[in-house]
């Protein structure tokens, strides 16, 4: 994966240097930001392909940085933190993080996670137009645009990715764990309520749009984008 640039954001210089060594050994370019303020200032000029973002930092914490980045970019973000509670994981995912690694970590695991996220969200995939259309529904992942009955609807990135994933595979049933793995790309141990929250928000946007399809709960299993046969 030579040619990809990784931004490491952490106030611990030892961790930054360790990650730089491993990343450059794997052929990645790296840029270091020692805090959240510096990361936001550097982002536009550095144009990284992925951000490794620590949570516990002075001035601006990782949650705030993630929220600000998501206002302007879909660049993949992996949260890197000493915290491992389920609440923190759910919060990171809800804010638009693509993965979550808990300290202390193995450098090989970090590299593997980075490669997995880049394969899923990287430039090769981004260059392919991804559009799904059904009656009254238009999803364009090239520019993260959702239209309902022809009108653009403001939709957070993870909700977009979730409805696109389901609608791209009509009538296929997914468990919550499958959706966390395939949409969030996240090896998740614990509560999967974050999927339910995102489905509920999507239903509020899509309620009553068409009788030919629906975002359906399969009780005891998970969810599917059900399309009725014409």
What characteristic shape results from the CA principal axes?
elongated
- Judged by helices, strands and strand pairing, the structural class is alpha/beta
Helices, by number, come to: 9
Beta fraction: 15-25%
Largest sheet: 5 strands, parallel
What does this protein look like?
The structure is a single chain. With 230 residues, the chain is of the alpha/beta class. Helix content is 41%, strand content 23%. The chain is built from nine helices and twelve strands. A five-stranded parallel β-sheet has the order 2-1-3-4-5, with helices on both faces. Strands 6-7-8-9 form a four-stranded antiparallel β-sheet, with helices on one face. A three-stranded antiparallel β-sheet has the order 10-12-11. Helix 2 packs parallel to helix 3, helix 7 packs across helix 8 and helix 7 packs across helix 9. The longest helix has 15 residues. The chain is elongated and about 60 Å long. About 3% of the residues have low confidence.
